[in-house]
Design goal:
With 383 residues, the chain is of the alpha/beta class. 42% of the residues lie in helices and 17% in strands. The protein folds into 2 domains: 226 residues, Aldehyde Dehydrogenase, Chain A, domain 1 (3-Layer(aba) Sandwich), CATH 3.40.605; 125 residues, Aldehyde Dehydrogenase, Chain A, domain 2 (3-Layer(aba) Sandwich). A 5-stranded parallel β-sheet has the order 9-8-7-10-11, sandwiched between helices. Strands 1-2 form a two-stranded antiparallel ribbon. A two-stranded antiparallel sheet has the order 3-4.
Length: 383
């Protein structure tokens, strides 16, 4: 069971009394009730975490270990992940609202796979190369960049956290992880697992925080690189801030993914694979196929097929294995989605199914799976 401590934050792997944070509930999107309480770190907490990571990088053992030695920690963490598989899957469902059938099927094993891939790379990646230079041979060494600030969104937090931690830790970096304030429990659990696997003290801090405190992480001169997943607007601001310091950064930003169905497509086979990809994680994934481009000759047939497919989806408690669609993450996000639905209607798109809140689900941030037809690229919902 993941342990949290009120009025404390995880700095360098240790629960440390917060200097300026605030204790807040982690709210279940399905019940609107707290599932845990955590402390959102303040600017002084973030400062301590950054300086702890700096010291661990400049003076600690982790960057000075070999890649194979660091990989042994990741390999052990991979084993511990699977030992806690069901508990971790349930935690993700409780704090994100992802249906349990999805978290049980892939959310934890995705993290294991990311760790395992990087464990294998320890023995295959060219950490040191000899290349021909202009006048002589040169030796190229791959060194850790330093202190990494990792900022993770709420929608697929466990997988995205692992995607940042695995390469950073394998290469010998120290990390300050800033999970979304809505979904911090999975990050705390992963920190526990890494500590048990042998990650040295100081290497990883986990500071849930709001945007203002996150700005401290981005702008701090002791942080050498920022890895961010989130909105395009926030990504632009981070790129600008990092550019002022000539600081490295990696951005994974939002998208509006389209699927193109060709005229000769086997519709039954296409529907079986494509429909789940439109509603994964309750529709809250940037790689979801949120637009479908269909040929005019089969347009009505395709619209009807997807509409009937949506009609068969079961909406409800994400902890129920029979549920296909759970709630959205919180009330403000539901209001934003409902605003897009109103926009589609006002712009003249044809609503074929959904558009409202499902009957009988008075608690939780639910919205019916929704399809609009007759959409053109000038409409807000298509952009």
């Amino acid at each position: 069971m993941t342990v949290t401590q009120e009025s404390a934050v995880l700095i360098g792997g240790r629960w440390t009394p917060s200097l300026d944070g605030q204790t807040v509930p982690v709210i279940s999107p399905a019940t609107e009730e707290p599932v845990a309480h955590v402390t959102l770190g303040g600017a002084r907490d973030m400062e301590r975490a950054i300086l702890t990571a700096r010291e661990a990088f400049d003076e600690g053992p982790w960057p000075r270990m070999s890649p194979r030695e660091r990989a042994q920690v990741l390999a052990r963490a991979s084993e511990l992940l699977m030992a806690r598989h069901d508990e971790l899957a349930e935690t993700i469902t409780q704090e994100v609202g992802t249906p349990i059938k999805q978290t049980m099927r892939s959310r934890v094993t995705n993290v294991r796979d990311m760790f395992d891939v990087h464990v294998a790379m320890a023995g295959t990646y060219p950490w040191v190369e000899i290349r021909d230079g202009l006048r002589s041979q040169v030796e190229i060494r791959q060194e850790p960049v330093g202190v990494v600030g990792a900022i993770v969104p709420w929608n697929v937090p466990f997988s995205l956290t692992a995607a940042k931690l695995a390469p950073a830790l394998l290469t010998g970096c120290t990390v300050v992880l800033k999970p979304a304030e809505e979904t911090p429990l999975n990050a705390i659990a992963l920190s526990e697992i890494l500590a048990e696997a042998g990650l040295p003290e100081g290497v990883l801090s986990v500071i849930p925080a709001d945007r203002a405190v996150s700005a401290t992480l981005v702008s701090h001169p002791a942080v050498d690189k920022i890895s961010f997943t989130g909105s395009t607007a926030a990504g632009k601001a981070i790129a600008s801030a990092c550019g002022q310091q000539l600081k490295r950064y990696s951005l994974e930003l939002g998208g509006k993914s389209a699927a193109i169905i060709l005229e000769d497509a086997d519709l039954e086979a296409t529907l079986a694979r494509l429909l789940p990809a439109t509603v994964n994680n309750n529709g809250q994934v940037c790689v979801n196929q949120t637009r479908i481009v269909a040929p005019r000759s089969r347009y009505d047939e395709i619209v009807e097929a997807f509409t009937e497919g949506y009609r068969a989806l079961r909406i409800g408690d994400p902890m129920d294995p029979a549920t296909d669609i759970g709630p959205l993450i919180h009330g403000p996000h539901r209001e934003r989605v409902e605003g897009y639905i109103r926009s589609g209607t006002e712009d003249g798109a044809r609503l074929t199914i959904g558009g409202g809140r499902p009957a009988g689900l008075d608690r939780g941030f639910y919205v019916e799976p929704t399809i609009f037809a007759d959409v053109d690229n000038g409409m807000k919902i298509a952009q």
